[in-house]
Each structure stands twice: as structure tokens, then as C-alpha cells.
From TrEMBL:
Domain of life: Bacteria
Name of the protein in its database record: Secretion protein HylD
GO biological process: transmembrane transport
Chain spans, region Disordered: 1-40
């Protein structure tokens, strides 16, 4: 082909200024094909309708399942970590003073009710009891003596009354005899001497009657004195018996025993130690323990006594426990503190209060030491599962 007939060469050779669009034609064609494909390509919803529907259904199922899990396993429960084991622990104190003779327990030992804990030397108290018993016997002897005197006084009264009766009869006869002799002397049939003798006998009979009357009165007063002595002796007996009972009780108090089953902690008594009256020798934790959970007041809306409780002791997480709500304190814990909060101020800030809830456990672990102050996490089922 001639050079002048080749269009490209002719353009290059002639230096024609006409732009060369031949090289851009394939790019424009590809761009047009891509745009045409984009216009004709369906959306993802049209291309995968089943997968989209399955995803939506799965999302709804997960939402429903999550709601049911929350409703069944989270919604019906109220829990708190502000809970502790509680018990009415107390100090074991002495009622009498003396030297410790024996200590029958060790630290943290579990004892049954009635077990001997500490013994104080009973020598002085045994002597005091013997003295008190001697006073009781002395009072009893005084009562017996007074009763004997009463009996003797009664006999003396009877004797004096008999003499009084005899004296009264003799007085009556002497009176009559004196009257007769006076009449005879006046008529001349009797002598003056005889009349005077009769008058003298009358005076003696009157004196004898007065003496017997005084004897009766004296015997009666002696009986009254004996009765008073008996009353005094009876009072002394009661006093002596009370002293003996007190001495016997003090003798018993030299032996300190456990009034209930529990554990002995913080044992401070030692053999040979002198302890004063009322001094503590140990602390005692009874077996009867429970849980006090301080729930927020907003958690008590549906909480009622008798609801089941699941508990976990922090020290023994592998030993879950079951219990129930026993009671709810009618007031927050702050209200019953030593220095309750005074909210009647101008800068009052409302704070959610905590209310103590008593929880009793159905069965405590027998092989584990559980005592006051141990942390517990209770979970109360406040609403039934639905």
C-alpha cells in the first residue's frame, strides 16, 4: 500500500493536527459495558432472598430467646453481695471470783449443751456452804427450843388455871365461913376469936386467888414470849436457808458449763489464773446461725417471707446452700445505728438505703466451720418462674 494511502502514517507524516481518538475507543467501550452490567445487576435482596429471610427469622428467634432467658433466669431474682453469717454470740463470764482450777476445752472446739468449760477452785465456797448449813441447823434447834418452851408454857397455864380454880373454891368457902362466924358472934352463939380467925382465913384465900390469877397471866405471857422466839427462830431459819442456797449456788457457779451447743472461740482463761466476778474467759458462738442480707430498698418490692433463697458462701463456693426468707426488718440499717443519720438538712442528698433481711438456711454443712462475719451471696426468687 502506498504511504500516502495509509491513514495513520499519512497523518504522522503530514503533521495533521486532528486528534487521534482511535486509542480511546476500547476504554470507552469497556466503561459502557460496565455501566450496562451495573444497571442490569439485581440487588442483594433479590439475589439472596432466602438468606435474608433466614437471617431475619434467626434475629427474631434470638431476641425472643434472650428475653425468655432474662425472664426465667434473671428477672425473678434479687441478689446482693452485702450479706453475712450472723449469730447471737456472747461472752462466757464468771459469776464468782477465784483461781481457775481446770480448763476443759480448747480454742474453736465444738461442745454440746451442758459440757464443762472452766472450773474455779471451789474450796472457799464449799466452806461457806458448810457454814450456811450450820446456821440452818442452829435455827432449826432454836425453833425446837421455842416450841418446847411453848409447850411448857401451855402446861404452866393449865396448872395455874387449876390452882386458880382451887383458890376460887377456897375463897368462896372462906367467904361463907367468915359470914357465918360474924353472924354467930353478933347473936352471942359464937366467939369473937372464931370470927376473927374466919376473917383471917378469908383474907388468905383472897390472896391465894390473886396469886393464882397472876400465875395464869405469867404463864400466858411466857407462852407469848416462847411463840415470839419461835417466830424469830423461823425467820432465822429462812435467812439461813437462803444463805445456804446462795452458798450452794456459788459453789455450783464455780463450774462454768455451756448452756447450748456451739463453739468456744477466743479462749482467754488459763489454769492458775485469778478471775474476778463477771470477767470474760471465752467467747461462745452457738450452732444456731443465719444470714443477714442487706438488700437495697428498691429490691424489696416483691420480696416476702417464705420465698426460697439460694446461697453461696465465699469461703466454700463448692457448697451451695438452700434457705428461705424469714423476716424483713421494718426499717433501714442506718435507722437503728448508734448515731442515726439526720436528714433534716438543707443539703440533703437522697441515697438508696439498705434494709436487713433475715435468711434461715435449711441445712448448714456439718464438716465446715461456718461462723459470724463470713460473706455470703444470697439469691432470692422473688417471683415464680413463668
Amino acid at each position: 500500500m502506498p504511504d500516502d494511502q495509509h491513514p495513520i502514517r499519512s497523518a504522522r507524516q503530514t503533521g495533521d493536527d486532528t486528534p487521534d481518538n482511535t486509542a480511546d475507543a476500547p476504554q470507552e467501550q469497556e466503561a459502557g459495558e460496565a455501566a450496562e452490567k451495573n444497571e442490569k445487576k439485581p440487588s442483594i435482596f433479590r439475589r439472596h432472598p432466602l438468606w435474608i429471610l433466614f437471617g431475619l427469622v434467626a434475629f427474631v428467634v434470638l431476641c425472643i430467646a434472650g428475653y425468655m432467658i432474662w425472664l426465667i433466669y434473671f428477672h425473678p431474682y434479687e441478689s446482693t453481695d452485702d450479706a453475712f453469717v450472723e449469730a447471737r454470740s456472747f461472752a462466757v463470764s464468771t459469776k464468782v471470783a477465784g483461781y481457775v482450777e481446770t480448763v476443759s476445752v480448747n480454742d474453736n472446739q465444738h461442745v454440746a449443751a451442758g459440757a464443762t468449760l472452766v472450773t474455779i477452785d471451789p474450796t472457799d465456797y464449799r466452806i461457806a456452804l458448810d457454814q450456811a448449813k450450820g446456821q440452818v441447823e442452829s435455827a432449826q434447834a432454836a425453833i425446837a427450843s421455842a416450841e418446847a418452851q411453848i409447850a411448857a408454857s401451855a402446861a404452866a397455864i393449865d396448872e395455874a388455871r387449876a390452882q386458880q380454880t382451887s383458890a376460887a373454891a377456897a375463897l368462896q368457902f372462906a367467904q361463907e365461913e367468915a359470914n357465918r362466924q360474924q353472924e354467930l358472934a353478933k347473936s352471942g352463939a359464937g366467939t369473937v376469936q372464931t370470927a376473927q380467925q374466919a376473917t383471917s382465913s378469908l383474907r388468905q384465900a383472897q390472896a391465894n386467888a390473886a396469886q393464882t390469877q397472876a400465875s395464869v397471866v405469867s404463864a400466858m405471857k411466857n407462852k407469848a414470849v416462847a411463840e415470839a422466839q419461835r417466830a424469830n427462830a423461823i425467820a432465822s431459819l429462812h435467812q439461813a436457808e437462803a444463805a445456804a442456797a446462795a452458798a450452794e449456788q456459788k459453789l455450783k457457779d464455780t463450774v462454768i458449763t455451756a448452756q447450748q451447743a456451739g463453739r468456744v472461740v477466743q479462749l482467754s482463761g488459763a489454769k492458775g489464773q485469778f478471775v474476778a466476778q463477771g470477767q470474760s474467759v471465752a467467747m461462745f458462738v452457738p450452732d444456731e446461725v443465719w444470714v443477714v442480707a442487706n438488700f437495697k430498698e428498691t429490691q424489696l418490692t416483691d420480696m416476702r417471707p417464705g420465698q426460697p433463697v439460694s446461697l453461696t458462701i465465699d469461703a466454700y463456693p463448692d457448697h451451695p446452700l438452700q434457705g428461705r426468707v424469714d423476716s424483713i426488718q421494718p426499717g433501714s440499717g442506718v435507722a437503728f445505728s448508734l448515731l442515726p443519720a439526720e436528714n433534716a438538712t438543707g443539703n440533703y442528698v437522697k441515697v438508696t438505703q439498705r434494709v436487713p433481711v433475715k435468711i434461715v438456711v435449711d441445712r448448714w454443712p456439718q464438716d465446715l466451720p461456718v461462723g459470724p462475719g463470713m460473706s455470703v451471696v444470697p439469691t432470692v426468687t422473688v417471683r415464680p418462674r413463668s
